[in-house]
From TrEMBL:
<feature type="domain" description="BTB">
    <location>
        <begin position="13"/>
        <end position="137"/>
    </location>
</feature>
<dbReference type="InterPro" id="IPR011333">
    <property type="entry name" value="SKP1/BTB/POZ_sf"/>
</dbReference>
<protein>
    <recommendedName>
        <fullName>BTB domain-containing protein</fullName>
    </recommendedName>
</protein>
<dbReference type="InterPro" id="IPR000210">
    <property type="entry name" value="BTB/POZ_dom"/>
</dbReference>
<dbReference type="Pfam" id="PF00651">
    <property type="entry name" value="BTB"/>
</dbReference>
Length: 349
């Protein structure tokens, strides 16, 4: 049986949490501070007392219990002993005191799932204790967020992510990362109320031209009107920047000298492939061309192009191909604080 002991200056672990056989020795005072679940239930008057004659090494002792719907949660060990009937309780290698209905016993014998749940739960505890941890995929981010949500510890997890997101982890660089799962990350970021992660997902979603085909209504897989409104506003912002750049470039090219014919011939704003790389080439040619009496129009065009070509990604900027070209994608949109779909004044949710 694996045991993980968390430390806190001046405190001795008084709470044991056993998750499918893996023990976590923690401090009730720390968990009460960061988890509404433990604040409410640790000293609940409805909790039965431990059976007489038992030796209590911890003031509080919780074990994982599986429900009929294949979900699980922590319950006081005394409650499990009092409520479990012989025909409902099975001995298993994960947790001998878990109430495991026959329909879910086989599911929990999947060691990968058990390890996933243990790992996600441990990372929630590490977030509560302000310890470092890595998130290696969007799936893992979902798992950790789900458990933090169940134990009412989302603020602690959200705050702790600021440290982990700057690392070179799979969440940023892998095929199962933000770029291929931006919709999922957007929903998770909303639940976590994490502005950096939320903005990153919005910018990536808006940057994908295929989502905005005429007549397409399923541009966002999440069925959330608030999220769709934020994404649409960000897309409209990108469209305005592109239209402004198109206008200023046309005005500048109208008055170019004949020697700049190469610039004129390369300008095809109506071409569906006229994306980031193409606009970059136009801007570079405008900067390298000598103008006579047309400096203001060219300066306006260059400023508009710079605004369109700006990369507002923060987490994924080193990995999005910016150094080798961005293809048809633009990462210039923004999300204002007032557009974030949550109340920023709330500290507990």
């Amino acid at each position: 049986m694996t045991t993980v002991v968390f430390k806190s200056p001046g405190l001795v672990p008084d709470l044991r949490l056993t998750v499918f056989g893996k023990e976590f020795h923690v401090h009730s005072a720390v968990l009460r501070l960061h988890s509404a679940f433990f604040r409410k239930f640790l000293d609940s008057t409805e909790k039965p007392s431990s059976p007489a004659g038992t030796r209590n090494l911890f003031k509080y002792d919780y074990v994982s219990v599986v429900d009929d719907d294949d979900s699980w949660g922590l319950e006081p060990i005394s409650m499990v002993r009092c409520t479990s009937r012989p025909q409902q309780t099975k001995s298993c290698s994960f947790q001998p005191l878990c109430k495991l209905p026959s329909a879910t016993t086989e599911a929990l014998k999947d060691l990968n799932r058990v390890k996933t749940e243990q790992n996600a739960f441990e990372k929630v505890l590490r977030a509560i204790y302000c310890l470092s941890y890595d998130i290696d995929s969007v799936c893992e981010l979902e798992d950790v967020t789900r458990i933090a949500d169940f134990y009412c510890a989302l603020p602690a997890l959200s705050s702790s992510l600021y440290r982990g997101l700057w690392k070179d982890t799979g969440l940023i660089t892998s095929w199962d990362g933000i770029f291929t799962n931006a919709d999922t990350v957007l929903a998770v970021a909303k639940k976590l109320r994490h502005p950096i992660l939320f903005r990153e997902a919005v910018i990536i979603i808006v940057s994908q031209p295929g989502r905005w085909l005429c007549g397409r209504e399923d541009f966002l897989s999440e069925d959330d009107d608030n999220l769709k409104a934020v994404v649409l506003r960000a897309h409209h912002r990108l469209c305005r920047l592109k239209l402004k750049a198109d206008h200023h470039v046309r005005e500048a090219l109208r008055f170019l000298p004949i020697t700049s014919k190469s610039v004129r011939l390369s300008w095809h704003p109506e071409d569906e492939f006229s994306g980031h790389d193409h606009y970059t080439q136009i801007m570079n040619k405008l900067k390298a061309t000598t103008f006579n009496g047309n400096e203001k129009r060219v300066a306006d065009a260059i400023r508009s192009l710079e605004a369109l070509l700006k990369n507002n990604l923060v987490l994924t900027k080193p990995w999005n191909g910016i150094n080798g070209g961005c293809g048809s994608s633009f990462y210039c949109t923004e999300v204002d604080d007032k557009d974030l779909p949550w109340d920023e004044t709330e500290t507990d949710w």
